[in-house]
Amino acid sequence: MKAILIIADGLGGRPTDYNGKTCLKAAKTPYLDDLAARGAVGLMDPIGPGIRPGSDTAHLSILGQNPYKVYTGRGVFEALGVGMEMAPGDVGFRANFAAVELVSRGLRVLDRRAGRISEGQKELEAVINSIELSEALDIDFEFRASTQHRGALILRGNGLCHCVGGTDPKQAGTLVCTSRPTEEGDIDAQRTAAALNELTKKSYEVLCNHPLNRRRVEEGKSPANILLCRGAADLPSLQSIESVYGVRGAVIALGSLYRGIGKSLGMKPITAAGDASSLDEDPAAIAEMSLAALSEYDYLFVHIKGPDNAGHDQDAAAKIAVIERIDRELIAYLDLQLDWRTTHLAFTGDHTTPIDYGDHTAEPVPIIFVGPNVLPDKVKEFNERAATEGGLGRFSGQALPILFNYNNWLPKFGS
Ligand SMILES: [Zn+2]
Question: Which of 115, 249, 328, 370 has CB 3.0 to 4.6 Å from 222, enough for a Cys bridge?
Answer without folding.
Answer: 115
